[in-house]
Each structure stands twice: as C-alpha cells, then as structure tokens.
Amino acid sequence: MSAQRRANPREHHSKAAATSDLARPSREAWAALGPYARTRLTVHALGKSLALDVPGDVFSTQRIDEGTQLLLSHLPAAEPTRLLDLGCGYGALGLPVAARFPSCRALLVDRDLLAVAASAHNARALGLVNVEARPSLGFRDLPDANERFDWLLCNVPARIGATAIGHFLLEGRALLSPGGEVRVVVIRDLVPVVRAAAVARGFADEVREIVHGPRHSVFALEASKSAAADRAPTLSAAPGADGIDSIYARDESPLPIPHGSHAPSISLVRPHDASEDPRHAEALAFFFSAFPRTAPARVLAFRCGFGGAALASLALWPGAHVVAQERDLLDATFLVRNARALSMHQRLDARTTLFPGEAAAKQVFDLVVGELSSSAGDLVAARELKEARAMLAPRGQAFVLAPQKMNEAIARANAGFSLLLERGGFAIWRAGASAASART
Q1: CB 108, CB 151: distance < 8 Å
Q2: What is the pLDDT of residues 34-46, one digit of tens each?
Q3: Residues pairing with 426 in the sheet
Q4: Can you give 260-290 as a three-state secondary structure string?
Q5: What whole-number distance in Å separates Cα of residue 234 and Cα of residue 33?
Q6: CATH number belonging to the domain at 244-439, selected among 3.30.450.20, 3.40.50.150, 3.40.50.1000, 1.50.10.100
Q7: What is the pLDDT of residue 277?
Q8: How far is the C-alpha of 330 from the C-alpha of 235, rounded, in Å?
Q9: Are 211 and 217 in contact, with CB atoms under 8 Å apart?
Q10: How far apart are CA 290 and CA 428, in angstroms?
Q11: Cα–Cα distance between 309 and 287 in angstroms, integer?
Q12: What pLDDT does 275 receive?
C-alpha cells in the first residue's frame, strides 16, 4: 500500500499557480534531486534570507510553511551549540538556525530520503559546513545515541498520531543537554493532543505554550532538572523492532488479494501518516487482478508503501523472491513488520532508495510492479517507467498502477508501456522486455 506523500493540506495555492509563478530550481538541484527538483523558495528568518531548492512530493512545496515561520520567530533565547531538527524536510527550519549560528553543529533528520537529499543539497549550496543531514525514523537512527542537543526543533506532522507526538516530547527531552529545550510547532487541531500527551506522561506543568497563532501553536519543554531523570526507551535500529507498533501503528487495513487465488486473506498494520485515499484499496484490488497468472521467480515492487504490491506478490506466488523499494523509512519499517507477522520476511528484500533502479542494483526481474504518484510529477513518472522496463529479464513484464489523469504523461514518456485497463479513475499500464533484453 503506497503512501500518499505528505503534501501540505494547508496550502491554499493551486498546483497550476505554483508551476507557473514559482522560481525554477537551481542547476545543481537537478544533479542532486534528479526529476524531483521542482521549485525554489526563499526563507526569511533570523536576519537571513536563504534560497532553498524544493523537490516535489514533500511537505510545503509551494511556500515556506506558516508553522515553520512561527517557530523560527519563537526560538529559545540561549545560543545553541548543538541542534537537532526532527523531520527536517528540505531544510526550511534547521538551515536558517545553522546559518545564524555557524558554530552550532546542526543535525537534520527525516524519515523521507527525498527530504534528506534536499536538505543535504541545500546545506552544500549555502556553504553550511556545520550541517549534517541523514535519514532517521524519529530518533531511531541517530548516529550517536549519547549525543545531547541544546535545541530540539520539530514541525510536527499533522497526521502522525497522538502516541508519536507524546513520544517525540518525552524521548526528545531525554536527548537534551542541561539547560536545553524542545520546541515544537503544531497545527491548531493538535493543541489539545499535545496537552493530553503531556498529562499522560506526567509533565503537564512543564510544557508551555509559547505562542498561539491563527493556525499554529508553539510549545516548549525544557530539559529535566533532575540528574536522575529516567530516560525514555529508545527503539532498536532493526526494522519492525518492538515498540514501533506502540508509537506509529494506526489500524489494520485489508490487502485486497484477488478472489479465486489460493492466497489467504491478509490484513496489514497501517502506520499513521500513510495513505488517506479511500479509493486506494479498490485501486489495489483492480491492480492485483491484472497480475500475470504465471508465477514469477523474481519480482521488484516499487513505491510499495507498508505492503501493497510487494506483499501481494509474496502471497500470490509462494515461490517468489521480492525486492521491495520504498523511500519512506516509516513505510519500509511497517512493510518489514507486516512481512514478519505473515512469515513472509525470508522472501522479502526491502530496500530504501529514491528510485526503483537504485533498488535493483543491476539485477533483472521476471516481473516489475509499482504505483506512480501524480504529486511526484511527470518527470519522476517517466524515470520510474523507463527504469521499470530496463530491469526486466527476457520475457519479463512490468505493470504499473496510476491515476487516470496521468495517462497523457505516461504516453508522452515513450517508455514502451501500453494502456491495459481503466476503472474508477485508475489505469493499469503494461510493458514487456525491450528487444535488446529479449535477445540476451
């Protein structure tokens, strides 16, 4: 089940206006981000004006988020020497702080590999040698578990869930140096969630609302004054480790295996901040019904979210080995978690990469299946289509599911795919191996 990327639900500009009115990304952005490079925005904060290259398919692509601006204007008073920006996106929050305080070591982390690539690129372009950007699911993958921070900043995702918000506060506080501070910004609907989380974890009197804006609030939590304060448990670095469910799990979602197959019915644990499209399950059922009847030995599934085509392939073909590509660490973690729960993990190789071709690692496959994202843009879709076909073994096949509105873009990509089926606003496109592959 492919995650709908975290587009900003609070943006009021239309996509058409964004593509025509916003600045083009820099030449270097195309090298760093490939076809994801979308536009260029300037953040004005802390006496600095920083031009940032912005990829498509991430949070707040059409303007600097209002919540980010509010937090930047309400930072702690003491100058930091170590900063952690949790959920850094393309760097709109952490990079202005790093620019304002060049002696501060700034660690920017995000669960989305695209966001990390964008932050790293922007830091290089701005000459900010005090910045490190790296992937991490929450605090799980921090490079040094013993490092402490003076400032921990976070623009909290709107759909991450109450338990995760409480975890960010409690675990974040444990990562503070003496006198350090956690500051988070949340949308107005999450204000009572933050307060309830503080009550549940026993520090209600210590969480302060710094400012209450029209659509956002900023909260602060200082380091514990007790030297013996308990440290909250940290998650294991292993995907699917104990504790992941309790923090990020939302509900169970059925995987729509086609009727008549010998595969058992399957339910997957779905994380918060995953797909919200109510039509997605129906689209997957449509997609799976078009899968070939002949069992493949090797399958690559791309943009597979927390299960989707990867686990459907494992269920439909008990002898198949599946390489699953996903760029979001949260989805990838739940993909592995779900495969373990179904005793399918030994036939699954989950790889976190930006593009399907990077996950293939020069291997070829009997079947390539995946979903295209309209929010990622036509250029990304064209690359994914071409890579999907290039990964096919002789006589292999590729099937992709896409919104029907992408049909013209898929045809223009000239990647060797032909329209197979359409239903309910979705389309399935198919390609065979290229003539060169068929002759090898």
Answers
A1: no
A2: 999 999 999 999 9
A3: 403, 423
A4: CCCCCCEEEEEECCCCCCCCHHHHHHHHHHC
A5: 32
A6: 3.40.50.150
A7: 81
A8: 13
A9: yes
A10: 8
A11: 9
A12: 72
Contact 41, 64 (CB under 8 A): yes
| Distance of alpha carbon 342 from alpha carbon 13, whole angstroms | 43
Burial of 123 (0-12, 13-18, 19+ CB in 10 A): buried
- The identity of residue 187, as a single letter, is I
Residue 254, strand partner residues: 267
Question: Which residue type, as a one-letter code, is found at position 99?
Answer: A
Strands 298-302 and 365-371: parallel
91 within 8 A of 52, measured Cβ to Cβ: yes
Q: How many C-beta atoms lie closer than 10 Å to residue 16's C-beta?
A: 8
Helices (H), 201-251: 244-248
Give the pLDDT confidence score for residue 435 in this predicted structure.
66
Contact status, residue 331 vs residue 338, Cβ threshold 8 Å: no
CA distance 173 to 222: 7
CA-based R_g, the chain, Å: 22
Residue 276, token pair as written in the block: 């919200």
Q: What is the pLDDT of residues 173-210, one digit of tens each?
A: 999 999 999 999 999 999 999 999 999 999 999 999 99
Angle at the Cα of 89 (from 349 to 132), degrees rounded to 5? Answer: 80
How far from 99 is each of 82, 133, 137, CA to CA, in Å? 13, 14, 25
- Every domain of the chain with CATH number 3.40.50.150 lies at 15-222, 244-439
Three-state secondary-structure class, residue 338:
helix
- Angle at the Cα of 108 (from 103 to 113), degrees rounded to 5? 150
CA 402 to chain centre: 19
Do 249 and 44 contact (CB within 8 A), yes or no? Answer: no
Class of domain 15-222: alpha beta
pLDDT averages per 10-residue partition of the chain, 440 residues: 42 37 92 97 97 96 96 97 98 98 98 98 98 97 96 96 95 97 97 96 94 96 71 42 79 86 83 85 95 96 96 96 98 96 97 97 97 96 98 98 98 97 97 70
Q: Is 325 helix (H, G, I), strand (E, B) or coil?
A: strand
Q: Which amino acid is at 305?
A: G
